């Protein structure tokens, strides 16, 4: 795990710049023993949100680690196209996956999980537990659920106050 998080911390600036994403993805797939992207797959990477494209570039740098490249082009392609990266890019600035230790760990753990690998020395349950502590998507879901619960509680309190006010007005008008 520390090797992967260190790799992310050392991401070259070329992967943070406006690179041609389909070319970088094609290079990664070729390095893994596959073939370059065809025109339709390349179009997928050209038309994406800029934040998502930058996260794909950072992830490309991460998966060029020899142990991850060994997973093969099909697994790597599947991960780079995953909706998980789209969702993650919408929540977190891709530069955080290079600059922030928790975000580096999150991307490394998500990548290992996507490639059906476990961090060295960790059981599956420990790896899943550790991922849940740094998972931005789950954190956002919990925050949304908490906010919705708070809004429901506020609505109930307001309804109770209105009921009390009506009851008080009814008692006062009977006097």
Question: In terms of topology, how is this protein built?
Answer:
Blueprint: H1 2-9, H2 21-31, H3 39-46, H4 50-63, H5 66-69, H6 73-80, H7 83-91, H8 96-99, H9 101-114, H10 124-134, H11 136-174
Give the biggest sheet: none
| Stretches with pLDDT under 50, minimum 5 residues | none
Which band does the percent of strand residues land in?
under 5%
Gross geometry: elongated
From the N-terminal CA to the C-terminal CA, the straight-line distance is 75 Å
Instruction: Please give the radius of gyration in angstroms.
Output: 23 Å
Q: Helix and strand string, N-terminal first? A: HHHHHHHHHHH
What is the total tally of β strands?
0
Count of DSSP H/I helices: 11
Mean pLDDT: 88
Specify the structural class. Answer: mainly alpha
Helicity range: over 70%
Explain this structure to me?
The structure is a single chain. With 175 residues, the chain is mainly alpha-helical. Helix content is 74%, strand content 0%. It is built from eleven helices and no strands. Helix 1 crosses helix 9 and helix 2 runs antiparallel to helix 6. The radius of gyration is 23 Å and the shape is elongated.
Short key terms for the protein model shown above:
175 residues, mainly alpha, 11 helices, elongated
């Amino acid at each position: 795990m520390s090797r992967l998080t260190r790799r992310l911390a050392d991401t070259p600036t070329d992967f943070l710049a406006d690179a041609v994403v389909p070319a970088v993805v094609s290079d990664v797939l070729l390095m893994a023993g596959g073939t370059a992207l065809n025109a339709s797959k390349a179009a997928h990477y050209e038309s994406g949100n800029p934040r998502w494209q930058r996260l794909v570039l950072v992830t490309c740098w991460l998966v060029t680690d020899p142990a991850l490249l060994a997973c093969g082009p099909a697994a790597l392609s599947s991960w780079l196209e995953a909706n998980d990266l789209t969702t993650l890019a919408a929540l977190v600035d891709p530069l955080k996956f290079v600059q922030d230790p928790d975000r580096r760990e999150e991307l490394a753990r998500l990548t290992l999980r996507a490639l059906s690998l476990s961090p060295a020395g960790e059981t599956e349950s420990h790896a899943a537990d550790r991922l849940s502590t740094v998972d931005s998507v789950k954190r956002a879901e919990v925050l949304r659920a908490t906010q919705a619960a708070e809004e429901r509680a506020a609505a109930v309190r307001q309804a109770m106050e209105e009921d009390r006010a009506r009851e008080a007005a009814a008692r006062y008008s009977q006097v």
